[in-house]
Amino acid sequence: MKGEPKEIRLIVNGKVYELRVKPKTLLNDVLRKDLKLTGTKRGCLESTCGVCTVILDKKAVRSCSILAVQANGHEITTIEGLAEGDKLHPIQEAFVNHGAIECGFCIPGRVMMAKALLDENPDPTREEVRIAMQGVLCADVGYVKQIEAVEIAAEKMRGGE
Amino acid sequence: MKDFEYMAPKTVKEALSLLSQYQNETKIIAGGQSMLVVMRQGLLAPEYVIDIKALSELDYIKYDEGEGLRIGALTTHRDIEKSPVIMKRFRVLSEMERNLATIQTRNWGTIGGNLCHGDPAGDPAPIFIVLNAKLKLISQGKERIIEMENFSKDMLEVDLHPGEMLSEIQIGNPKPHTGVAHEKLMVMQGDAGIVGAAVSITLKSGNGICEDARIAVSNAASVPLRAKEAEKRLVGKTITPPLLDEVCQVASQEADPPADVHGSAEYRKEMIKVFVRRAAAKALERAKEG
After folding, report:
1. Which terminus of chain A, N or C, has fewer Cβ atoms within 10 Å?
2. Is the ipTM value over 0.90, yes or no?
């Protein structure tokens, strides 16, 4: 039947959720409305801005452009899954300490983009960081600090100081 | 977005059976990176959506010295970009993928979904046209192979019969001394192309005369445009800068581009000259190398 809810199982930040969702529900809606994980933002809804970026099976994707039913069975990490208690993830810490956050709206998406990049490529060139950061738009034009913050975080994650 | 009935077959066989059962008002979704946008805009409101994204049977890149390259329709853009065999033997595809969309879209979007969306602004179709690619279309108990060039029918319309789906893209090995290049005009890397041009040039060994040429342009008509008149000017000649000037003029004359917020038809015609020329010059250079 049209619009009939489907049962799905999502693993979000390591926790298993069993949900019933309408087929047209976007992954972004499930994260924000059903799971109350509002760190993931909702931006343009047309796959342009990238603020809704989350990590699905180790890859950065746009949660506004994936149906929740298509994420069935997959493992998702959102910004809420990065910090360990009060201890920020090195990428979050670098963004805060380096003054890379202006209004902050794009930051959750951008941090997830950076995490996907650094998990796959711990020592990216500046060009590689820039290309990854292109996937999330910043209306404050704070790109330089953001790129530098990713490089600072990369160094720390590699074990340097 | 309007409600729809959702089905997620587990195998290709099951998908084809569902497709033969639900032939009307049905759309296949793969990555949905283009389709969900038009569904949200209300331009598309299917009754039934058959989700094939998880069919791993159609997610592969195979290469064979004799047969050439075979790409499963559900291979993601990112996997094509990163495939060592594609980087080595069909580097134009890897280069195209880096500019096709942002990383997030390339991570989830599939090559087959892109082709079946039938957007004349898309990057892969013109490149597959100049590579002389063929598409394998399957339906219950049947399959047919068609030329990529004949797949696009009109804006967002492709030659898929009811009950049919794209399963594979087939690309033969290019002849020796062939160079292929793609250039596109975009505001930012990963944006949709305002115009794009793919050119393949094959030179005769020894004398450097052009033996074969194929030119295809995106956003130049309601379907990916093959600029056949421009191609004819190259064949049988030694390619010189003045000849390239002439060829890109002819390609621009063959185009009937759309006008939108990104550019007027006149602007696109001018840019087709620039980008066909750039792609042709690069293809020529590559043809000379190997």
Report:
1. C
2. yes
The number of distinct structural domains making up chain A is 2
Same-domain check for residues A132 and A71: no
**Which residue ranges in chain B fall short of pLDDT 70?**
none
Residue A160 is predicted with a pLDDT of 67
Task: Please name the residues between 86 and 105 in chain A that touch chain B, using a CB distance below 8 Å.
Answer: none
Terminal CA-CA length for chain B: 51
Give the per-residue pLDDT at A47: 83
User: B122 to chain A nearest CA, in Å?
Assistant: 15
B250 touches chain A (CB under 8 A): no
Q: Final residue of a domain: which of B120, B153, B171? A: B171
Chain A residues with CB-CB distance to B40 below 8 A: 45-46
CA atoms of B144 and B167, how far apart (whole Å): 10
Query: Quick check: is A1 in a domain?
Result: no
HEC string of B54-65? Answer: CCHHHCCEEEEC
Verify that B280 and B214 share a domain, yes or no: yes
Give the pLDDT score at B188: 86
Q: What is the total count of domains within chain B? A: 3
Q: Does A118 touch chain B (CB under 8 A)?
A: no
Contact A6 B6 (CB under 8 A): yes
For residue B244, the distance in angstroms to the closest alpha carbon of chain A comes to 32
Q: What is the pTM of this model?
A: 0.96
The answer to whether residue A62 neighbours chain B at the CB level (below 8 Å) is yes
Q: Is a pLDDT exceeding 90 seen at residue A45? A: no
